[in-house]
Amino acid sequence: MSPTSPEPKLVRTVAELRASLAGVRRSGGTIGLVPTMGALHEGHLSLVRASKAECDCTVVTIFVNPSQFGPGEDLDAYPRALEADMAALADCGADFVLVPSEGEVYGPDHATWVEVGSVAQPLEGAHRPSHFRGVATVVLKLFNMVGAQVAYFGQKDYQQALVIKRMVADLDVPIEIRVCPIVREPDGLAMSSRNAYLSPDARQRALVLWKSLCLAGELVEQGQRSARAIAEKMRAVIAMAGDAKIDYIALVDPDTLEPVTVVERPTLVAVAVQIDGTRLIDNCLIGDEGLGIRN
Ligand code: AMP
User: Fold this and answer.
1) 127 tagged catalytic
2) Atom of ligand 1 nearest to the CA of 191
3) Sign of the four-CA dihedral 151, 157, 160, 162
4) Does 190 contact ligand 1 (Cβ within 6 A)?
């Protein structure tokens, strides 16, 4: 920790957070919000740094949101590491960390849910049916709890960022959404709290996600324009990792998430693969001017 940065203040309730932020608000300071589920890694911390660079006060939330997990998913097993998280947040200078209990977020009579339309339906939405309803609801609640002017999300969860942007536009939520680049391990694996589930062997095999995305970029650079041909070659790369179950390989419009058949405009390439039962997602944007990978 840098000698000048004070410890972030850990708060457990919305009332305590609002009281803590009153001074910042009174003085006209900007508040940046970084919503997370904890077990923080450099991907999360990059969002904190982006907020620090732009806002006067940075609030990080750590809440493993039950309503975005489906039956049989990893809610109970999800890694929790508050002590290490607080140390990492002190290092990068977060100001407040809201760690609410489940009861603080969802009262016993909670009965209001946010359903986002078409961008929440394909990809993750198709494989995790109530996932985005849980995400949109908790994120809107966090926006209302914190009252930030800017909120930071990672491109790692590309569809999630799109769902949040749609919600913010449709419901006139007064907040700006920033989407920050995917932070990767040196060998290309996208950082994820779920990587902790991987055995050393599975960790190695998980590289097929990134390799398949790189291949998609290379194929487009070489002139391949058929989304089906690209997806087939990606499938072959992913199949090389034994015990890899592909949930989807998708080439879609980056704004609507509608399938692309001919790659002639910027295209989102997104994959979801279970490696030894650990579900990993990754994506990249192909296109712009040069049809190379942009991340
Ligand atoms: P999570 O704790 O998984 O809910 O993630 C909290 C935020 O961190 C989300 O906006 C994610 O998209 C973002 N995030 C997770 N992993 C990464 C990564 N490798 N690079 C950049 N952002 C990430």
Assistant:
1) no
2) 19
3) positive
4) yes
